[in-house]
Amino acid sequence: MDRSVTAGQLKDKSLFQDTDDSAVPVKGVCHSCSKLKIFLGALAFSFFAKGFSGSYMKSMSSQIERRFEISSSIFGIIDGSFEIGNLMVMVLVSYLGPRVHRPKVIGVGCLIMSLGAFLSVIPQFLMGRYNYERITVTVDNSSMSVSACSPGLSVSRPVTDATETPSAMKNFGCEKTTNSYLWLFVLFGNLLRGIGEAPVMPLGVSYIDDFSKEENSAFYIGLVRSSGMFGPTLGFLLGSFCASLWVDIGVVDIDAISINPKDTRWVGAWWLGLLICGGVNFIASLPFWFLPSSLPKEGQNEKMKISHLPVQGDHCKTDSPVQPQLDFSEAVKDFLPALKKLFGNPIFLVFIFLTILQYNSLVGVITYETKFMEQQFNVSVAKAIFLIGVILLPITIMGMFLGGFLIKKFKLHITEMAKFACITFIVAYLLNLLYFTCSCEVLQVAGLTAPYSGLKHLSFPKNNFMASCNADCGCKLDQWDPVCGDNGITYMTACFAGCKSSTGTGKNMVFHNCSCVEGQGHGLGNSSAVLGQCQRESCTKAFPYFLALQTACAFILVLGGTPTYMIMFRTVSPDLKSFAVGIETLCGRILGGLPAPIYFGALIDETCLKWGTKNCGGSGSCRVYDTKAFRNVYLGLIAGLRAGCCLLYIVISVLIMKRFKLDGKETTDIKNTERSTSKEAAIDNKKEILPCARTSEESEETCAELLWHPKAFGLYS
């Protein structure tokens, strides 16, 4: 027998009547049936997984360049392949989202991301051991010392492994020229990651917004976003750990390696982290296969049960709403009018241009920041990645949450948010200009950036590596195995330093009787050289100031990132929110995320002073850069792009202030009036009233996803 329970009774008691007339708490009965909670947990982990793998891939830029002996511009193409894959499906997924089985599509996306990570690892097992470039030495049987400079002998051939003969090396290198194209596996793997990542955010956020209570939507989306924030941090920490390991760990004797992680020939275990990322993405896909395409509305379901509630049976069992069928012809017919309506909005149009410039600068920074820190400040790639993971990312997370908190705390209106975003960005831009003051001297390489005489500020012919002190050594110009002389000058190889003997092995090898060092007024006791480049003390001392400045800039920049993104949601029609996200992401990535790493990398390549050499000839990855030119190109590009952003911030602020004035009254008066209107009136007047500014409560819930947008965070992949 069924009985009805009134709303007042349920509100007072918050109880259901069980089959034995005993009281059972509502939450206790329905908790096990809440598939929405399961979806929230699965989506949070998928956000973590995609951020984890995306940040790890970004951190491995230098390692991949060196492993495949490619330039920065080629890696830019590899990095941009993620955007290509994402763009292939992003708009379609955003537009058709509510018409498909969203949990299963997200599960398929996670599987594709996993497949892409595993595909990128394949070259490691096809290429064999990594053989870094170094010179051969002759052994004097009488003293058991080794000589780099052997007058009359052409002994300076590139050796790739201590246990490998030159002839074996030659055959190995030239028989496997196809290895030069194995980086295509990484490119296609990254392409698959981009395809798989596309449905996670738009479908996941819309699923939560559709089936959760309005008052809970903001909390749920914030919870998912904040859980995903741990992904980039742990991804960079994993990247730091893997970059400190030798690429062929477990296969070669680490003690026999003569280079360290600060050397530009060092390659970390880039593939190891990709295996972990692939496994994490695979696990993230599993829960979505067991979730329904739709759920009862979290709030409405209980209200329906209140008026007519059965006493017996399963109190949580309800029929799910019927999933709407996809009418493809109707969807295509509505596409162009929706697109025209969006781009007919001048504020949205300016916002798109702003997004494009911001994507360009952010992608350039994320992709090449570790390389810049390595070349500019003498820090290893592993250390640079670690510092980004433990300092910069947590600071940006704090700034992002503080920005959202300020919006809620002070109930900022759209005009106030526009001003706040504009001011914070301009302040961050001015701080950005201080980067140019963190100057660092160019590495002094004999014959390349400094004369063999050792006298600074002395003009000399560039790229003149031969001198009287090494003319009889038979050195080859296409080698890079640097040594640091006692005079503080770096020589391309011990042969170019004119070293006649050495002691020690591996990393501890010290060369003696170096004629080019001795010829600069030093005695015989000071004519030695050690493996590796000379350290630039001024650069090392400037690094803490650079890191502090970078942290402050990042914090202020993301502080205004949240209100910036909310501008879009509050200036488009509610029915076009999801579509606007897709268009914004499409334009930002196709005109920002895709070209930025390519042209950043190409311009950085122009500052290279010495290229590595492949076994069978041809240029490999860059060994040493002109640090001054590198700094000017890298920081100049960022400053130029952000100068354009400053101008667009001012324009969009002016447009917003002009648009949201009605009959001479400020929008704050409009907001007070809207609080007293009904929802029906708000819908009827949605063309005149801000789509997302009906009530303070509704604006926080409807636009909650903005508080955790990846663009404000700087890591969207």
TrEMBL record:
GO terms of molecular function: bile acid transmembrane transporter activity; sodium-independent organic anion transmembrane transporter activity
Top-rank taxon, per record: Eukaryota
Alphabetized InterPro entries for the sequence: Kazal_dom, Kazal_dom_sf, MFS_dom, MFS_trans_sf, OATP
Keyword DNA-binding belongs to the record: no
One biological process term in Gene Ontology: sodium-independent organic anion transport
Transmembrane intervals: 36-53, 74-93, 105-126, 229-249, 269-291, 342-361, 381-406, 418-436, 543-567, 579-600, 633-656
Example of a GO cellular component annotation carried by this entry: basolateral plasma membrane
Ion transport found in the keyword field: yes
Membrane topology label: Multi-pass membrane protein
Domain Major facilitator superfamily (MFS) profile: 39-661
Key words, A-Z: Cell membrane, Disulfide bond, Ion transport, Membrane, Transmembrane, Transmembrane helix, Transport
Pfam family, one: Kazal_2
Chief site of localization: membrane
Annotated ranges, domain Kazal-like: 463-518
Location relative to the cell: Cell membrane
PROSITE patterns, A to Z: KAZAL_2 (PS51465), MFS (PS50850)
PANTHER family named among the record's database cross-references: ORGANIC ANION TRANSPORTER, SOLUTE CARRIER ORGANIC ANION TRANSPORTER FAMILY MEMBER
Family classification: Belongs to the organo anion transporter (TC 2.A.60) family.
Protein name: Solute carrier organic anion transporter family member
Record organism: Columba livia (Rock dove)
